[in-house]
Amino acid sequence: MIVAAKGTERVWSFDSGGASWGTTARFPCREVAGQTVVLADCLAALEQLEPESVDVAVTSPPYNIGVAYRSYADRLPRAAYLDWMGQVGRGVARALRPDGALFLNVGSTNADPWVAMDVAAALRSTFTLQNHILWAKSLSVGDDTFGHFKPINSQRFLNHNFESVFHFTKTGAVSVDRLAVGVPFKDKSNIARWGHKQDRRCAGNVWFIPYRTVRSKAQKFDHPAGYPVELPLRCLRLHGAKQGAVVLDPFVGSGTTLLAAARLNLCGLGFEVDAEYGHAAVRRLEAERENAKTAAANHRPGTARHRRDSFLAPRLPL
Ligand SMILES: C[S@@+](CC[C@H](N)C(=O)[O-])C[C@H]1O[C@@H](n2cnc3c(N)ncnc32)[C@H](O)[C@@H]1O
Prior knowledge:
Helices cover 28% and strands 21% of the residues. It is of the alpha/beta class. It has a single domain (30-293), classed as Vaccinia Virus protein VP39 (Rossmann fold, 3-Layer(aba) Sandwich). Strands 1-2-3-12-11-4-5-9-6-10 form a ten-stranded mixed beta sheet. Helix 5 packs across helix 6 (256-263) and helix 6 (256-263) runs parallel beside helix 7 (275-298). The longest helix has 24 residues, at 275-298. The protein is globular. The relative contact order is 0.16. Bound molecules: S-adenosylmethionine. Residues 41-42, 60-62, 69, 72, 223, 225-227, 251, 253-254, 256, 271-274, 277 line the site of S-adenosylmethionine (SAM).
């Protein structure tokens, strides 16, 4: 059984971790960099979580638009799909603390423009929609565009460049840390005029997060539908997740949410039905752990890198 204890270092128990996959009482699992990947159907695994044990969930479910996942068939009859999404929403709600939040990323297509809104509506009786964030992958500004998108050849549709991130809470009144994902004031005189304590203001609900250009399939982490790590990072910062907070991703895929959780020193738990994707998530987390170790070693006092950075630091403003 996955046992999520509140406010402790150890958030769930399982028989073994380390180099090989261990098992919870029911599912194979593996812990890397403080993150746990569980190979499980999310509905079954959600049932095993202790109620109100999760601080924040960030996830992106299958959109039911025919993505070629390895094992999951992404074309259910619409009613069955929305019914399933509703069940997942109830399972997440049960696991979330009263002041928790679910950031649910869903996209649509020109052929199926309603799907994201239908999924949001399927969770309407369970949650309050506190914020609706638009994730812009590409922006049109003047006569230029910024970011990447897949161009379509069509006489009737525009290129489709955005997805939704639905910020669901139980009450609609959960405080968020707007300034953690804020930006500096453009007009600095506003800081004193409006009595702000720091040079930071809310950046709003349209987030421009372009995909990075990938040159090889390996860089796509063997998954057809991953989101950029900046997306869960922003959600977790906006939620104000503090060190050690429990983060859940019921559809963890290649582990992007857990990567973000690792970078913020949070305790992530991700469920995935496909073993290959679960392994890919573990490999990414291992790489992240190694990168963090190398970065820490390079910046240890006495190393060449540290001496160089100490030399450069006072000159950086130039
Ligand atoms: C949109 S992808 C998530 C991608 C992820 N955000 C990332 O960055 O890699 C959805 C994932 O849900 C998985 N999945 C489908 N049905 C599932 C279920 N019942 N329980 C757990 N995972 C499931 C799919 O295999 C797929 O990897």
